[in-house]
Design brief:
Elements lengths: L5 E8 L3 E7 L4 E3 L13 E6 L7 E7 L3 E8 L2 E3 L11 E5 L5 H10 L7 E3 L2
């Protein structure tokens, strides 16, 4: 299963510093990062799919419940600074496959993540 190979490290500081949260599987939707006391403090992250490096999608939302402005990241990558999205993330979706733009738009318009993933609420 692709989601078991996904790794995400979230950092509150630029350049992978300060407070860190680690997710060791994909297929996760966090409706409100306040559940981890991480609302509006995400500044950098490391994203990986250890078996298939290009089969992973991370979607960051500026509001809870997958609403507001979004940033989409596909494929394994390290982002040391979120730039104009720094300290704005309030919810996220992480999956071990590539979500299409239309799938992401549907999530945003309905507030419902894909069916096959774990949803974390506050």
């Amino acid at each position: 299963m692709a989601n078991t190979d996904v790794r995400l490290q979230l950092f509150s500081g630029n350049n992978f510093t300060n407070r860190r949260i680690v997710l060791r599987r994909g297929g996760v939707a966090v409706r409100d990062l306040g559940a981890f006391r991480f609302d509006n403090i995400l500044s950098s992250f490391r994203l990986r799919n250890v078996s298939t490096t290009d089969s992973v999608t991370l979607v960051l939302f500026s509001r809870i419940n997958f609403q507001g402005s979004i940033r989409i990241f596909r494929g394994s990558q390290n982002v040391s600074n979120l730039g104009n999205f720094n300290n704005l993330t309030s919810s996220l979706i992480l999956v071990g496959r590539n979500l299409t733009n239309s799938q992401i738009q549907q999530i945003q318009s309905t507030g419902r993540p894909p069916r096959d993933i774990l949803v974390i609420r506050q």
